[in-house]
Design a protein that fits this description.
two-stranded antiparallel ribbon, DUF1648
């Protein structure tokens, strides 16, 4: 049951992203923003049907990250895996991947909402997402170093 509740935020962000993408389709828009410059201004427009591309990519990433979260032995580690540390290190990697998955799904929702022009896209906020993911990786790897 704990695994289910830890999955809820990522699933919510993924489903919300699909909801926004479908809403764009039902809104009968001719064009949607496809690219934003560093100031968050739209510098390329395209067909509204491309708005479903972001949720589709998010779905593929969700599937890959979920698989990786459930099969942590396929990850690269900064410590040598031994019989003594295998379980705690795999558990830690599973937590790292789960947190990254949640942030990535939230990022895709944010960008999809930007395409729908529900929020203004901010390069600063996207950089915050990237730094948060990096922080999760560094903090997780430093925890793994304690499981030698």
């Amino acid at each position: 049951m704990k695994r289910f509740w830890s999955e809820v935020p990522a699933l919510f962000f993924l489903l919300a992203s699909w909801g926004v993408g479908v809403w764009i389709q039902l809104d009968n828009r001719a064009e949607v923003p496809l690219h934003f410059n560093a100031r968050g201004e739209v510098d390329r427009w395209g067909a509204a049907s491309t708005a479903l591309l972001l949720p589709s990519i998010a779905l593929v990433l969700y599937g890959l990250l979920t698989w990786l979260q459930r099969h942590p032995r396929w990850c690269n580690y900064s410590v040598e895996i031994t019989d003594a540390n295998r379980e705690p290190v795999y558990r830690q990697m599973s937590h790292i991947v789960g947190r990254i998955k949640t942030l990535v799904m939230c990022l895709f929702l944010y960008i999809t909402m930007g395409v729908a022009q529900m929020v203004a896209v901010s390069l600063f906020l996207i950089l915050i997402f990237a730094l948060a993911i990096l922080l999760i990786i560094v903090a997780g790897w430093s925890q793994m170093g304690k499981n030698k």
